[in-house]
């Protein structure tokens, strides 16, 4: 299961627990209130752990790409036939500015990263 799917699943569980906690509070059931508060704390801890893992992976990928020897903007003509460009340049990685990676790298245009000039 991917990190994104795990995060979504944990967020859904957290939402259910919060609703059940509200119901337990309205009934005044102290045993259930303590159970759900403990469960909410555990889920929050897991979600924060997964978020930090995602951030770590994103920063690792950003560092790997910025360490590549060459990078430049991809022109409109190259964008039109991106498959041809990828086949002609070995090891080319293209990053779009609206993706998480593009935002982390603070890109403003579609950029290609490669180990040698292209």
From TrEMBL:
It holds the Pfam family DUF2810. The keyword Coiled coil applies. The keyword Coiled coil applies. Residues 7-53 form a coiled coil. It comes from the Bacteria. InterPro entries: DUF2810. Keywords: Coiled coil. This is YibL family ribosome-associated protein.
